Every structure is written in structure tokens, then in C-alpha cells.
């Protein structure tokens, strides 16, 4: 049985699988982004984690890169 803990603060780190779900990407694609330095991650012991800030920065870069392509400023 999986137990969820309620915290009073936002999440800071996500597992790769959680980051993939948040970005609507596959787990393999997230690992590709990490290997190509397009998405920053940290090592915690033997575990790879993606900082929430890195997810925000990645999406912001995508938005800047697509500005003007779809008619948006």
C-alpha cells in the first residue's frame, strides 16, 4: 500500500517518471533531455531527481523558442 504524505510546501524534486508525467513525455524522452543537458537533474544517492525549477525553465525555453511561430507574440 502506497502512503501519500501531505506537505505544506510545494514539491522541490520529482522522480524522472513524475517529471515525464508532468511534461506529458515518456520516461525515455526525459532521460534523453537530461543526457543532452536540456533538462537539469540532480543525483540523490543512487536516485536521479528533477528539480521543479528545472521543469519550469525547460518549459519557459520551449515557449521562448516557439514565440512568433504560431502567431503568438
Automatic annotation (TrEMBL):
Top-level taxon of origin: Bacteria
Alphabetized GO MF terms: DNA binding
Domain (Helix-turn-helix): residue spans on this chain: 13-61
UniProt protein name: Excisionase family DNA binding protein
Lineage, top ranks: Bacteria, Bacillati, Actinomycetota, Actinomycetes, Propionibacteriales
Amino acid at each position: 500500500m502506497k502512503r501519500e504524505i501531505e506537505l505544506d510546501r510545494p514539491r522541490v524534486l520529482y522522480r524522472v517518471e513524475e517529471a515525464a508525467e508532468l511534461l506529458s513525455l515518456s520516461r525515455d524522452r526525459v532521460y534523453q533531455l537530461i543526457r543532452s543537458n536540456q533538462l537539469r537533474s540532480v543525483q540523490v544517492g543512487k536516485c536521479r531527481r528533477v528539480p521543479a525549477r528545472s521543469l519550469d525553465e525547460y518549459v519557459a525555453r520551449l515557449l521562448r523558442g516557439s514565440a512568433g511561430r504560431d502567431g503568438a507574440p
